[in-house]
Design goal:
The chain contains one helix and five strands. The chain starts with a strand and ends in a 7-residue tail after the last strand. It is mainly beta. A three-stranded antiparallel sheet has the order 1-2-5, with no helix packed on it. It has one domain.
Length: 63
C-alpha cells in the first residue's frame, strides 16, 4: 500500500490523510495502554506533522 493513507477516529468526528510513510508504527501491551484502549494493546504511530492533513474536525494534537 502506498501513501496517501486516510483514516478516521472511532466516532467519525475526525478524518485525516497522511501523505508520507509514518516514522514508526508499534503496538504496546503494557497495562496503562491496555486501560487506555480497552483492549489487549494500543497502536501508536509517529508521523511528520507536515504530512498530516486534517480533513474533518478539530483534533487534539499532543506529543
Amino acid at each position: 500500500m502506498q501513501p496517501p493513507y486516510s483514516g478516521t477516529c472511532m466516532c467519525g468526528q475526525i478524518k485525516f490523510r497522511l501523505t508520507t510513510e509514518p516514522i514508526t508504527l508499534y503496538a504496546c501491551h503494557c497495562t496503562d495502554c491496555q486501560r487506555r484502549s480497552g483492549g489487549a494493546l494500543l497502536l501508536s504511530m509517529w508521523v511528520y506533522r507536515e504530512s498530516l492533513e486534517v480533513l474533518k474536525g478539530t483534533p487534539l494534537l499532543v506529543s
